[in-house]
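retry 2 of 3: previous attempt timed out while embedding PMV. Reduced batch size to 1 and resubmitted. Inputs unchanged:
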Amino acid sequence: MTVYQASATAPVNIATLKYWGKRDKTLNLPTNSSISVTLSQDDLRTLTTASCSADFEQDQLWLNGALESLSSERTQACLKDLRTLRKGVEHKDASLPKLSEYKLHIVSENNFPTAAGLASSAAGFAALVFSIAKLYQLPQDLSEISKIARKGSGSACRSLFGGYVAWEMGESPDGEDSKAVEVAPLEHWPNMKALILVVSDDKKDVPSTSGMQSTVATSDLFNHRINELVPQRFEEMKSAILKKDFPTFAELTMKDSNSFHAVCLDSFPPIFYLNDTSKKIIKLIHKINEIEGKTIVAYTYDAGPNAVLYYEAENEDKILSGLKPYFENIQGFKQPQTVTSFDFKSFIPEITGVSKIIATKIGEGPKETSISLINESGLPK
Ligand code: PMV
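retry 2 succeeded.
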């Protein structure tokens, strides 16, 4: 039996200018452009092996050891596009095997708990699409491939690039100009660090798709956000990244997170993603910046209560000193070298609810790897 295969890893990205709202639900076309930072795959990544063979009987996916359905419309849209592009390749060179006609076996694994509420769907769809693009030896560039990942999960298109990434919303009804592009590579501003404070939460969030639909349909503030605020911030944030202007980048990041959660609250019925722990962390970050006399750290929150903090490596000690009074016993907390003289506890007595801390940094885009998750018979190892 001949099994063709390719493996790749793909990163998580956390938006600093949020995507919230779809103008086309099937194609995942957004109502606004967005910007993100790609995080290091040393700490958070999906590894996927894609394989195909004339002997496979059906498309199959194994995710973190369990057989998963591939039947969702989104996944089907990705597979269909990839097969169409492969057909183009086969058409040009008739000697190539007809992989576009073979069934696929895909095995995928995260190096972080899927349940932690981290952006696993972005890394997941990016790794799925990138590994199949490699298997099919597609000549298309990453922006082209990002349009396919976008159909799986909107934010996944940004995980096709490392460093600082924009998703240009585009105008075309068919989505052909709605794609990810690089704003700046990792090397341009490599000292960007990210600290993820995983906040435990008992209630289930409103899933992002239905949350977005509800905001688009009911929020009065939403039009102001997508027509005025985001277009201006999009240009300002790209320019702050190009200039490595951290205070401006950080302020825009925090304001945009707040604006996104404001349109959630303005939806009817309202959507609450932040909890009391998230709110106390917001206050603490503003206090750390106030004591410093300048903005050295930013917070941002996705569709859940976890905080992601961005800061430059040279300020890490100051930030950790501000977090220490609350989180020094939490798994993953790194002790600062210096101790702050400010009495944080008189300002906020306690912050409970953080279960784990992941210290990471800016990282690279998807990579092909020789590590395979599939054996010679096309089954998970
Ligand atoms: O791509 P989705 O459907 O997982 O939506 C992501 C939405 C946010 O994470 C809240 C914002 C963003 O731009 O990533």
